[in-house]
Structure prediction request, 1016 residues.
Amino acid sequence: MDQQTAPGILLDVRNCRQSYPKEANSELIVLDDVNVTLREGEIVGLLGRSGSGKSTLLRIIAGLLRPTRGDVSWKGTPVSGPVRGVAMVFQSFALFPWLTVQENVELGLEAQGVARREREERTEEAIDLIGLGGYDGAYPKELSGGMRQRVGLARALVTHPDLLLMDEPFSALDVLTAETLRTDLIDLWSEGKLPVKSILIVTHNIEEAVLMCDRILVFSSDPGRVAHELRVPFPHPRNRLDPAFRKMVDDIYAVMTRRKSPADLKAEATRPATGFATPLHPIGTNLMSGLMETLAAPPYDGRADLPALASVLQYEADELLPLGETLQLLRFAELEDGDIRLTEQGRNFVHADTEERKQIFAAAALANVKLVAAIRQVIDERWNHRASAVRFRDELEDHMSPERAEETLRTAISWGRYAEIYSYDEEAQQFSLEDIEEE
Amino acid sequence: MTRPVPPALVHGRRLPNAWDAAAIALVFALLIGVAHVARGTLTPLAQMQSGHIHLDPAWLPGYALRTTMRMFAALLVSLGFTFTVATLAAKSRRAAIIVIPVLDILQSIPILGFISFTVLFFLHLFPGQELGAELAVVFVIFTSQAWNMAFSFYQSLTTEPADLIEACRSFGLTPWQRFWRLDVPFAVPGLVWNTMLSMSGGWFFVVASEAITVGNTTFTLPGIGSYVAVALQHRDFAAIVYALLAMLVVILLYDQLLFRPLVAWSGKFRFETVPSAGETEPWVLRLLRRTFLLRAAGDWLSDQFAHIVRLRLGRAERTFVSAGRHRGASRIGDAAFYAVVIIAAGIASAQVVEFCARTMHWSDLARCVILALYTLARVIAALAISCLVWVPVGVWVGFRPWATRLVQPAAQFLTAFPANLVFPVVVAGIVYFRLAPDIWLTPLMVLGTQWYILFNVVAGAAALPGDLREAAANFRLRGLLRWRRLIIPGILPYFVTGALTATGAAWNASIVAEVASWGHTTLVARGLGAYIAQATVAGDTSRIVLGVAVMAAFVLGFNRLVWRPLYAYASRRTNFG
Prediction:
């Protein structure tokens, strides 16, 4: 195709799909029909919630994972494994604790068999560029998180890659450290000092994406798709307080909280009639109460702008959205266009005492969370009023990844325990009605 | 302070399955095969019968050196085995299916029961040469170390952090580079600890295997073990004391020059993100690090090593990995592999059945099981008594940091000391006071292994969080309630670790502990250990195989039915997280 040989195109992902096989001919789709093109000279952000498959896409691009379907090409040649010219920075840093800073940075050059003198020169260069001079002989565990991620960066840059992949590079760092690293990186990029042609950043942090990227691909979840593509027109250095910057952040929030389209809802309705296979976010009841109390109190008085609320609570979109969605699921709140609004039931909950709260929560959970209702129903139907967790886990795993299924089951257990709908014996893996007061 | 880690084999939460049966058949067919080769080769041994062990203490340093050299030779072989077999099992799904059960069975087999076979086997390979006997002893020590080490390495390989694997792949490290940059360093802490456990046990076996009697033939290799054996024949009490002193010095040197520096050094590879505070540097390591000349030599060595590590041997894996299950796995390959294993296991079972039918009767088995029950009772009793003594002592010590600092190194030292050197002293006592051997030989089994319990309980008590102890004190938990609610649950995982190691070793020790002699007086206790020992002396292959099989079954059953569930229970309950 002539498009692939066009100048400046580094990477091209076409109709990429990633799925995991499940029982009974069904499959779990993580990525569905994703198309991405990367050109030289741009920073592109993959923005999405956790579980939206963006990290999976990054691994496919890095040549670490084979897509179930679709093509990936690097400079016009099909990718079939780890690509030379692509280097990766990890969320967890992925430093070798038994190697010094210098040895960690040298790793990629060793693999390429670069001769000793050149290896040492280039390593020194990368270490100085990234501000690690003087730390050469230190071991990773002696460094702070920020310094460790600098090592991760230097290790990737020393190989002079054309494309730098960054997998949530700053999310394991505290707010101020992350900000320093972002600005340092952007400064180096703007001054043309980075030995890379293009950068791809995976992030769940909306402000980070708007601050750093030239182009943002917003991912939707279940299955992961590129829902939106936006261009960020602001020149570097960018100002977070600039009204245009704020507006863009708000707009992306709105996109990410938008209700599912009627077509999506219809698709959900036609799913098999097991009914309870909706993933639950692992949100504790204390956290829900806390958010509802905050919302009910001034200055919000029952309604808040999500980005503003997030920054006051020092939350990121990724943390606040599941919380909002959970409240919406329980009908304690509604999400609309980047706002969250407390419902009547939510207000009742806030004003109730401890016992009443449990009753309100129990009613809401039984009415709106099908898994919780199903567990209680099975217990009631059994002569010994016991039900094994295994069958629920198995049934959940037919519709989601094992990790998700476990998380969902854990959440149902914790909600049920709190609301005294049922109790759970960890050792026997059994639900029962022991210690539950019947009214 | 070193944190005790349970032996690697505890962790496997495998349910018994068909592969276990295949593994059992294969292992026993192999043993019978070795026994078969070994049989009828007693004749060339006669010339090798050696009496050239001198009881003059001046010879002792030389003997000690030779004993030590055998230990290290075995260690090298074990390391080689670990790096190859465990790597194979970790990288090949098919190999793992059969290798792991085989390792599990092998580590339950009482090694001492098979000394005579292995000795004869190697002598057969190198007839009339001392080399054969040397290799046999090295092999015995190897069998006492290798399984645990291989399993530890296998476990490390299968639990490597995903991000480091991805880093290796994305930077394009070759298999050789990855092995030395990721696989080995990641495994070092567990491997060093398991090697040390194995080596501590190894001193016991090296001493036991230097002087072996098979049939009418006794052969001896110069070493501390044979020195003691000869001293025993001559009822030379002074010589035994000299040997004990020599061993004490050897273990002390081993502990100070090797064990402590190695464990401290392995801390560098511990996979943690915060530096652990307050660990004292052993003096040897300090010497190595601070002395200019030694440091320069060390740097030069590590440079050469790094050079080898960087070699780009093999080709970097430049292919995708598929997500999900092994969709790429070839079914034909699987089928072929399973067929080979099944056929091999079938042939092996046929061999075992044929062998048993030819040489044994059901009554033999019944007799063995009854004897095994005697030994079981003895193991449990000895263990129970040592627990009653050492658990309170260990807790008392563990709660006092100054006492812990004194006791912990001593307990660690005592686990390495080969208790069988002390047996003659005890036996002489039993003979002198005319005590009943059925009862008084029992303590010998735990003489060397009880220290594992003390060591682990001390560590468990020391690791109990201070705030829990303060809370217990605040609520005035006292006496029995304090034990039931605080101490026992707190130390349980550590205790199980220690007791498990101790029982395994006690079964093994029963073979040398249930039959003991002092000069021409021989004391025998009723039990499976004595049965195996006597069969060895008589050169009765079939009874040895049967005895060993029954003992292996008991050890395996005990581990599977008691220790593993208990360990799983304990570690789930007391996860201070």
Observations:
- The first helix of chain B runs from residue 18 to 38.
- The interface with chain A takes residues 161, 163-164, 166-167, 169-174, 177, 181-182, 185, 188, 268-275, 310, 312, 316-325, 327 of chain B (CB under 8 Å).
- Residues 465 and 576 of chain B are 8 Å apart (CA to CA).
